[in-house]
Amino acid sequence: MPSPKASLRALFAALLASCTLAATGADYPDRPITIVVPQPPGGAADAVARPFGQLLSQRLGQAVVIDNRPGANGNIAAAYVARSQPADGYTIFFGSVSTLAVNPHLYKSTGFDPLKDFQPLTLTNQTPNVLIVGAQTPYRSVAEVIAAARARPGELNFGSAGNGNTMHLTGVQFEARTGTRLTHVPYKGGPAALNDVIAGQIPMMFHNLSAVLAFQKAGKVRILAVADTKRSPLVPDVPTMAEAGAPGVVQIAWSGMLVRSGTPQPVVDRLVREMKAILQSPEFRKPQEEQGSEILVSTPAEFAARLKADYTTMGKVIEAGKVSID
């Protein structure tokens, strides 16, 4: 029988080997991975996360589970990943500009710090917000909307998915840049607001291009301008806000994959490498682009820089517009 000292040395060596293996990420992944999505199943985020997760599963050789955790504009899901899950790469957060760059300026406590608690991996997709009006409205240009808003200050309503989201903030920017005063009508989600635009209950809203493209093609809404610095190839005849008479109104809704800060670098490197391959593959890109998303591929540093820049910009927009959560 080995002596007690020999047994302890063997145990110590085994523990050391195990720690070294974990630190290098050599055995990653050896169990299922979870992608936490801060929206309910069936939404726009889900439409990206699920096919992405399927392809990531194929590349990593492990199951990838989608965990939908809606609530508090994404704060519940973000706090769950940032504070309740280990920094080991087995829990990935599908974050967005709303949750990471907007919410910290609206809530007294989100339960997480977007700049400290997360390690960005890569941006995945983006879509610009657009100004849409119902097909039954008389408005056929941004100039006509501005003229109507100036003629009747505060009487022209616009809908959004709720106070403080990027749809609402695009409206705030629009008011500031055009010298108009609109009335914001918050809904419990973008689909409900869009339905009322289509039904004629409200005349207009600012929404993601990917969410309204099919309705524009069906003649149910008109897209008057794109809140981007360039025109969208999906609607090349639609001007940018600047071209349409509202310079400075730029609001692009982006999403990306992140893990907890402190995740071992080899694990981060592996995830970035596999995710980059997915985002560059026609199998993933083509259906997403057909739905109105622009697919992005970035380095962790590029993602971190964009998050920090938008965090600062959104803070200024919210402060200037005196936006608050009910």
Automatic annotation (TrEMBL):
Keyword Signal listed: yes
Family, similarity comment: Belongs to the UPF0065 (bug) family.
Alphabetical UniProt keywords: Signal
InterPro entries, alphabetized: BUG (IPR005064), Bug_dom1 (IPR042100)
Cross-referenced Pfam families: TctC
Keyword presence, Signal: yes
Signal peptide: 1-22
Name the record gives this protein: Tripartite tricarboxylate transporter substrate binding protein
